[in-house]
Amino acid sequence: MPADVGPVFGNIGTKERLNRFSLRNKKNVQGQWQLYCLVYNREKLANYGHLAAS
Questions:
Q1: Inter-helix orientation angle 6-15/26-53, to 10°
Q2: Largest CA distance in the chain
Q3: b/e string for 9-48 if b means 16 or more Cβ within 10 A?
Q4: Can you tell me whether residue 41 is helix, strand or coil?
Q5: CA atoms within 13 A on the CB side of 34
Q6: What is the pLDDT of residues 1-54, one digit of tens each?
Q7: 3-class DSSP state of 2
Q8: Which sign does the torsion angle of CA 17, 29, 5, 45 carry?
Q9: Which stretches within the chain are classed as H helix?
Q10: pTM score, two decimals?
């Protein structure tokens, strides 16, 4: 069953206030997007990581 990724984009857009990229070319935008995803995943691990380890 595929996962619903809509909430992830919504959370990054509202919580992190990413409504546009501050960089220009595709390589830089991909790097900026990866940093936002890294922060999002890091926060998920910090908040819910203990549940997965149980």
A1: 110
A2: 43
A3: eeebeeeeebeeeeeeeeeeeeeeeeeeeeebeeeeeeee
A4: helix
A5: 6
A6: 567 777 777 777 777 677 777 778 999 989 988 988 898 888 888 888 777 665
A7: coil
A8: negative
A9: 6-15, 26-53
A10: 0.65
Residue 25 carries which side chain, given as an amino acid letter? N
Q: Which two tokens stand for residue 7?
A: 């909430």
Hunting for tokens 């220009």 — which residue is that?
Answer: 24
**Which two structure tokens, joined as six digits, stand for 11?**
């959370």
User: Which two three-digit tokens encode residue 10?
Assistant: 């919504």
Q: Please, which residues have CB within 8 angstroms of residue 12's CB and are 6 or more apart in sequence?
A: 18, 36, 37, 40
